[in-house]
Amino acid sequence: MAAELSPLRLPTINETERGKSNIAFVTGGTGGTGSEIVRLLAKEGRRVIVGTRTDKKFQELKESLPHPDSSLIESFVVDLTDAEGVDAALEELDLGFGETVDYYPLAAGGFDAAMWDFGRAFGKLTLQLKKNRKLEADQLQRSRDDFKAISEAVFDQARRINSEATLALGRRLMDQGLLNQGSKIIYLASTVSEITRIALEHPDNAGKRLDEVYVGPEHYRAIGITKAEAAINLAYLARGAGAMYYNIVASVILKTPIGDLMDRFVPVLEEASRVGNEKFALPTPTASEIAEIIVRVTKTPLAEDEREVTIYAGYHPGEATREVPSNLILPAPTTL
Q1: Is residue 335 part of a domain?
Q2: Distance of alpha carbon 42 from alpha carbon 22, whole angstroms
Q3: 307 is a domain residue
Q4: Burial of residue 258, with CB atoms counted within 10 A of its CB: 0-12 exposed, 13-18 middle, 19 or more buried
Q5: In angstroms, what is the C-alpha Rg of the chain?
Q6: Highest-confidence segment of 239-243, 255-259, 329-333
Q7: Sign of the CA dihedral 117, 120, 125, 128?
Q8: Is residue 58 within 8 Å of 52, Cβ to Cβ?
Q9: Exposure of 57 by Cβ count < 10 A (0-12 exposed, 13-18 middle, 19+ buried)?
Q10: Nearest Cα to 14, choosing from 84, 92, 104, 103?
Q11: pLDDT at 19
């Protein structure tokens, strides 16, 4: 499995300068964290464009919002990996050239398709733990191999959604003048993807690929690598558009598919950590907590001489800091 970054054409800086954006473009807007961000932005009176693959989920979200908040959101129903569909959906939005849009690329993929397989593998370990009251090193190695095989099977899908599609949509927005010097790109990274991204930038890893420096658990491999790709490419996109870039790093978020799965199997992860003689910590903020932090910390624009920032969110309750939190540890042992 190769994990090289897709070729990135550094775009020409968009000189269109606008005031504060009143338009938020949220992909994955019906998901756990995305839907909470949509609620908060609509409550503030923002016009919110909600990217989703199904109109049913959008309608459910809209019906759950009070009036007049619900009148401020509109749908962008499309599979982001369908280039022609994206172009058609953008045309239907009828956004004026040069309007200022804040871009929240929150769509995530590569885990849902393998949820059953991951759950079954974790469940098998749970039964072994209940039966023997401990896990053996050989059991963990077999499970690690299983997790890696599952991750590799969904890797291409994860890349298309997490990295390629979000970047392609951002480029389209920039080409239409919608991402400009007044815009913000707000990306939600994970502990694992951020550590992987940082590892790639280390001088000792010059010339290496992301899969060669990946440091996370095997069940998170496809997501961790492709989200690190997205963080790198979206930062380049922001520079080209002249937009502000917020790299928000969060731990395992509850009320999301992977967050709830991890929370369910904490006993297995703790035992695997003990066997591997590794530290284990699993801060678990909720989707609503992370959404509140994101909306709060991105409300004030960055200074002109600081157009990019990394913010660690929710490692301690309600906390948002530019400093690496003391409890930032891989959310699952590397043996799994």
Answers
A1: no
A2: 10
A3: yes
A4: buried
A5: 20
A6: 239-243
A7: negative
A8: yes
A9: middle
A10: 103
A11: 53
Q: What b/e sequence results for 19-48 when a residue is b if at least 16 CB atoms lie within 10 Å of its CB, and e otherwise? A: eebbbbbbbbbbbbbbbbbbbbbbeeebbb
DSSP 8-state assignment for residue 308? E
Q: Could you give the count of Cα atoms lying within 13 Å of 53 in the half-sphere of its Cβ? A: 12
What are 85's two structure tokens?
């569909």
Question: 287: Cβ–Cβ under 8 A, 6 or more apart, which residues?
Answer: 32, 33, 35, 36, 253, 254, 255, 256, 259
CA 131, 263, 29, 224: dihedral to nearest 10 degrees? -80
Q: CA distances (Å), 270 to each of 122, 207, 274, in order?
A: 13, 35, 6
Say how far apart CA 104 and CA 34 lie, in whole Å. Answer: 9
Q: Is residue 66 part of a domain?
A: yes
Q: What is the pTM of this model?
A: 0.91
Structure tokens at 33: 């964290």
Sign (positive/negative) of CA torsion 96, 99, 104, 105?
positive
Q: Please, what is the Cα angle at 271 between 269 and 272, to 5 degrees?
A: 65
Residue type at 282 in one-letter notation: L
Asked if the model's pLDDT at residue 4 lies above 70, the reply is no
Question: From the centroid of its chain, how far is CA 269?
Answer: 22
Angstrom distance (rounded) from CA 58 to CA 92: 16
pLDDT digits (tens, 9 = 90+) for 246-258: 999 999 999 898 8
Residue 147 counted as domain residue:
no
- Count structural domains, the chain: 1
Tell me which residue range forms the domain holding 74.
23-112+158-259+283-321
What is the spatial distance between Cα 37 and Cα 48, in angstroms, rounded to a whole number?
A: 10
d(CA 29, CA 36): 8
283 cis-preceded (ω within 30 degrees of 0): no
Which residues have CB under 8 Å from 55's CB, separation 6+? 75, 77
CATH number of the domain to which 291 belongs: 3.40.50.720
